[in-house]
Every structure is written in C-alpha cells, then in structure tokens.
Amino acid sequence: MLGFFFPANNMTELNGKDDCKLAEGKVQKKKQKAFGADLKNYLKCMVPHIESGIKTSNSRNVMLSAEEVMQWSQSLEKLLASQSGQGVFREFLKSEFSEENIEFWLACEDYKKTKSDYLHGKAERIYEEFVQSDAIKQINIDYQMREVTAKRAKDPTPSSFDEVQKTVYILMERDSYPRFLKSKAYLNLLNQLQTNTSK
Description:
It comes from Bucco capensis. By secondary structure, the chain is mostly helical.
C-alpha cells in the first residue's frame, strides 16, 4: 500500500518553494496558509522518493498511511500516540501560535520517564520554560494551578506535573484538536493519502 514517509522525530520546514532540501534549524512561526503550503511542498518532494522506494539513509522514516491519518480523528490520544501525528499537530499549533501546549505535554511525557536523580533538574527546566509567570512559552493555566505546580516542582516526584499536564491536554482536546481536524492542512493530507491509496 502506498503511503508517505515522514521523519519520526519532527516535521521540518522546506527551504524554498521548489527546493526539496529540508531546512535545518528553528522553524519560524507561520500563519496557517503558510503551513498548508509547506506541507503541500513537502508532500510533493516526498512523492518521487516514495514511488521509487528511496529512503534517506541518515534519518529514520515512518510510513504514513491514510488509515493512520484517519485514526487521528478518533481522539487526541490516538493523534499524540503517533510520532507523525505529533509532528503534524505541532506544525498546526505553530500556525496558531500555541505550540507551547504540545511542547509542554511532550516535556511532561519525557519527565515521567526520568530517573529520580535527574527529576529536580528537569522539573526546574519545565517550570521555568512553561509554568512560571514570565516563562518564554507560558502555558494558559490559572493562578491557583500555577502556584500548586510551583510547589510540586520544588520537591519533584514523577507525578509532579500530572495535574497541570491533564489540564493542558483537556485544553488542546476541547480547543485546538477540533480545529485541527477541520483544518485544510489535515484534510488535504488525508485526501492526498486516500487518493494515492486508490491509484
């Protein structure tokens, strides 16, 4: 079955309209239209590689099928369980200037797997980057939740961020996720994969 290959780690930005080279470095914040154009160009660049069976040797690739992309519409949990889903959703959130939510959620997932010796350092970094009132990527939580999280981060346990992570998850589930499913980026990706599957 024909599908698309996406890098397992992150989606990367294209370097120019007609250039199939993937740009390295930080992806600039873009409007939703720009994201759709980038995704379209990315897909155009990947089609020849897929059809000829070529994979880049220095990156792990994941086969992306219409079935997997359709599963993303079943729940946010299924979307986030997919590496490719995380990448596409992250790019969508960047287009809405709200990528801090997915980045915080992923940081919390990573934090839960941290050995106890390293909990304090990671908890401090997560708090400073996402939770404190002047954080660069401040998440949208109320004052009380911010205070409770600050206390838990000072004396960290593997579950220190569970409550605030759940709050951010619910926010994404109720707000960003439904918009993502109606977005041109998601619908175009699904349509492209379904078209290629039926050929």
